[in-house]
């Protein structure tokens, strides 16, 4: 069954190890606060976050008027429980004072996780964050509204603050005054010195003779991409603790170009004018270029699009490093920012004079407030007029920073989810909440339990550490209806298929271990009458667990080629993904050589069944169709941008879009094949 091995072959782009001689910046100041926690702890990347007790050196007496709280729910899209699962909640304006080296610029990172804390609903947190240097970083900010609109499980807001001559950086949290009581909160706070990587002025796009001075500005990081490469965690950056993301989801259109990686042994030669920590080696050893067909390349632009806030000036930093060519005019291209020429005839070898030498260029652009979404367009196109040897363009890294306005403000309004989406979710949200509060109770006990005696049963148990009791309400036990199991493949393009140690460390999964007896009882000893899908891997049954919770149970055929490793990989991957618009993996059973996966049951079957009136399914109203489309799109968007790694589904079709009892669309994300349904 070659198809299966293909489906399970998660594309692995091995992170090139940082070459041994690369220099790493050592910050003078480095404070990582695990806000609202009395204990120090390590995050998923092994970075240590300090306890933030009441009356500590940064908060002083102000700490007494604030509350130390724990998040009421755990979302598995969190990269780590530390520092996200605890928060300091402020009822009145409160400041942290940090003593900092007055000579350095500093990163200020604010980490937020949307949840209720100590029973305070997530909507009731609305606040501003400002500094003693007169900057407004966030205003009337709602983590809940923002994460919902962006479909993200958590938020990191990163600012680069210019030198603080007084030597004290004060960060103030102010609840927004409104008719209803509001609160402020913070989960993690990081202050660390950084090198001068914003010294040179940026050229204003469209006004070659004008520049924007960024040396005195505060910058907010909007996007940071390792173009043509994978995710680089803070611990693998060049000492600046930045996260670099895969650019693939932001490449516009079908023409995505090609990626190239020179490998870990490639020697990147940092010239003296570029500090080695502007970007890590890994950014420069991977590129995205247009492809090998000159005729095709002439007729398209390699384009990235990114949503930004209106009324601000942005600095776009392009990182280049030529990995293959040696001579000028072999590869020359034009750079467009927002459809205006930022630079024509860019030639990396001309800029660096040598292969393997990195360089970067900054351009500034103002985003006016125009109707519709504010989208920044970045495009590259071969400089055909120069007749270079190859009609091609190349990019290694891309960063977009927002600059403070003249009033020292960086805050923008909270993003709005589309109106239709807001309406659609209104009805379902109450149900969600009551279900979640049931989960909480169980979760708390289990986290405590695993921390103690984690030496559990076998490798798989070590992977799925958090027990997830999915006790659904009665409405599930309604009429018998069949889900044709179109469970399908998911490709995780940028993580290794066996990072189990890492996952175990960050308690990322929510995955329950079932006994074989429970599986047998739930399926009437795997009764043929309960089979709802068959494939090369085995059969899918509709079943019941915990008395009344309906589930779909996928049992691997003993003769199936799906090996233990694939089984574990699947659990590890799927248990990390949890979203309103994704079919959830509830748990697994590994006993007596059986490999069984347990998923949420989808009462209303597949979208296809409704569109083609299969199995007596009624046609859908236009309203439901639209809601299902939007829901599926949100599920996919979460896979692209909300999870820690970029995940490309690669098999989106109506049999992979399932509908639950509330007509909520769920994208199927199981990595197992099924026979292709008739189209
Ligand atoms: C980070 O660096 C370590 C050691 O250099 C390496 O083993 C690991 O694969 C890297 N991780 C990523 C995601 O690049
Ligand atoms: C922090 O700084 C502010 C203003 O400079 C001051 O009023 C406050 O007392 C300081 N708090 C602590 C704990 O030092
Ligand atoms: C904050 O935002 C909410 C809703 O977006 C709005 O109703 C309120 O007036 C805003 N408050 C302030 C002080 O801007
Ligand atoms: C204020 O609280 C009341 C009662 O808790 C609620 O009905 C109302 O919608 C809230 N108003 C706002 C603007 O959040
Ligand atoms: C941008 O500025 C204009 C004029 O000051 C204002 O009317 C508009 O509301 C602003 N837009 C945003 C998104 O803040
Ligand atoms: C750039 O051009 C595209 C079409 O090619 C258009 O959709 C987009 O709105 C333009 N962007 C800006 C910022 O003008
Ligand atoms: C590339 O983008 C520029 C700027 O938006 C535009 O003028 C040009 O027509 C585009 N070229 C192609 C082939 O799309
Ligand atoms: C940002 O703030 C600094 C200092 O407050 C100021 O000098 C600068 O002009 C501001 N930047 C912009 C783009 O207005």
From TrEMBL:
GO cellular component: membrane
Residue intervals passing through the bilayer: 443-468
PROSITE patterns: PROTEIN_KINASE_ATP, PROTEIN_KINASE_DOM, PROTEIN_KINASE_ST
Primary location: membrane
Entry superkingdom: Eukaryota
Subcellular location per the Swiss-Prot or TrEMBL entry: Membrane
Annotated binding of ATP, by residue: 554
Entry keyword annotation includes Glycoprotein: yes
Membrane topology: Single-pass type I membrane protein
Keywords, alphabetical: ATP-binding, Glycoprotein, Kinase, Membrane, Nucleotide-binding, Serine/threonine-protein kinase, Signal, Transferase, Transmembrane, Transmembrane helix
Protein kinase domain residues: 526-679
Entry GO MF terms: ATP binding; protein serine/threonine kinase activity; transmembrane receptor protein tyrosine kinase activity
InterPro entries linked: ANXUR1/2-like (IPR045272), Kinase-like_dom_sf (IPR011009), Malectin-like_Carb-bd_dom (IPR024788), Prot_kinase_dom (IPR000719), Protein_kinase_ATP_BS (IPR017441), Ser-Thr/Tyr_kinase_cat_dom (IPR001245), Ser/Thr_kinase_AS (IPR008271)
Pfam families, sorted: Malectin_like, PK_Tyr_Ser-Thr
Signal peptide: 1-22
Identification of the protein by name: Protein kinase domain-containing protein
């Amino acid at each position: 069954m070659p198809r299966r091995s293909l489906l399970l072959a998660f594309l692995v782009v091995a992170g090139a190890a940082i070459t041994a001689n690369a220099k790493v910046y050592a910050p003078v100041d480095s404070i990582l606060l695990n806000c609202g926690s009395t204990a120090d702890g390590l995050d998923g990347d092994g970075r240590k976050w300090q306890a933030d007790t009441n009356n500590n050196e940064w908060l002083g007496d102000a700490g007494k008027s604030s509350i130390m709280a724990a998040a009421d729910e755990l979302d598995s899209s969190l990269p780590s429980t530390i520092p996200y699962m605890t928060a300091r909640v402020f009822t009145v304006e409160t400041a942290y004072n940090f003593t900092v080296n007055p000579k350095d610029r500093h990163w200020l990172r604010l980490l937020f996780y949307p949840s209720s804390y100590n029973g305070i609903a997530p909507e009731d947190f609305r606040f501003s964050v400002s500094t003693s240097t007169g900057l407004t970083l966030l205003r009337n900010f709602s983590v809940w509204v923002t994460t919902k609109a962006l479909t993200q499980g958590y938020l990191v807001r990163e600012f680069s603050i210019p030198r603080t001559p007084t030597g004290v950086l004060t960060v103030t949290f102010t609840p927004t005054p409104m008719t209803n009581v509001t609160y402020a909160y913070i989960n993690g706070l990081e202050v660390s010195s950084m090198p001068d990587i914003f010294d040179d002025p940026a050229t204003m796009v469209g006004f070659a003779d004008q520049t924007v001075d960024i040396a005195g500005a505060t910058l907010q990081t909007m996007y940071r991409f390792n173009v043509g490469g994978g995710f680089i965690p803070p611990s693998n950056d060049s000492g600046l603790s930045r996260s670099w993301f895969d650019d693939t989801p932001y490449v516009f259109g079908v023409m995505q170009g090609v990626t190239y990686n020179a490998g870990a042994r490639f020697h990147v030669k940092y010239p003296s004018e570029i500090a080695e920590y502007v970007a890590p080696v890994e950014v420069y050893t991977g590129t995205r270029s247009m492809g090998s067909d000159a005729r095709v390349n002439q007729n398209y632009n390699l384009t990235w699009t990114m949503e930004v806030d209106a009324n601000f000036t942005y600095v776009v930093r392009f990182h280049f490093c030529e990995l293959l060519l040696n001579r000028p005019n072999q590869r020359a291209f034009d750079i467009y920012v927002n459809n205006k020429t930022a630079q024509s005839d860019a030639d990396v070898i001309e800029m660096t004079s040598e292969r393997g030498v990195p360089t970067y260029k900054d351009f500034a652009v103002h985003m006016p407030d125009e109707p519709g979404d504010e989208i920044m367009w970045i495009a590259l196109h071969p400089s055909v007029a120069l007749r270079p040897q190859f009609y091609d363009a190349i990019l290694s890294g891309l960063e977009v920073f927002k600059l403070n306005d003249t009033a020292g403000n960086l805050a923008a309004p909270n993003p709005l989810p589309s109106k239709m989406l807001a309406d659609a979710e209104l009805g379902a949200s109450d149900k969600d909440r009551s279900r979640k509060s049931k989960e909480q109770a169980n979760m708390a006990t289990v986290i405590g339990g695993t921390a103690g005696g984690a030496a559990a049963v076998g490798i798989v148990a070590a992977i799925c550490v958090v027990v997830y009791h999915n006790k659904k309400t009665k409405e599930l036990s309604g009429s018998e209806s069949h889900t044709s199991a179109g469970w399908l493949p998911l490709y995780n393009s940028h993580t290794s298929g066996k990072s189990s140690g890492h996952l175990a460390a960050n308690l990322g999964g929510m995955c329950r271990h079932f006994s074989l007896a429970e599986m047998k009882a739930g399926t009437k000893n795997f009764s043929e009458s309960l089979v709802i899908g068959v494939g090369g891997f085995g059969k899918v049954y509709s079943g019941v667990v915990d008395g009344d919770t309906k589930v779909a149970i996928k049992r691997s055929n003993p003769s199936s080629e799906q090996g233990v490793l694939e089984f574990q990989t699947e659990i590890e991957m799927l248990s990390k993904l949890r979203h309103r618009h994704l079919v959830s993996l509830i748990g697994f059973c590994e006993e007596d050589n059986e490999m069984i996966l347990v998923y949420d049951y989808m009462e209303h079957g597949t979208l296809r069944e409704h569109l083609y009136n299969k199995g007596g399914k009624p046609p859908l109203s236009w309203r439901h169709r639209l809601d299902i489309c939007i829901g599926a799109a949100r599920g996919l968007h979460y896979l692209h941008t909300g999870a820690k790694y970029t995940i490309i589904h690669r098999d989106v079709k109506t049999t992979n879009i399932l509908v639950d009892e509330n007509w909520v669309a769920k994208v199927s994300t199981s990595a197992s094949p099924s026979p292709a349904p008739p189209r």
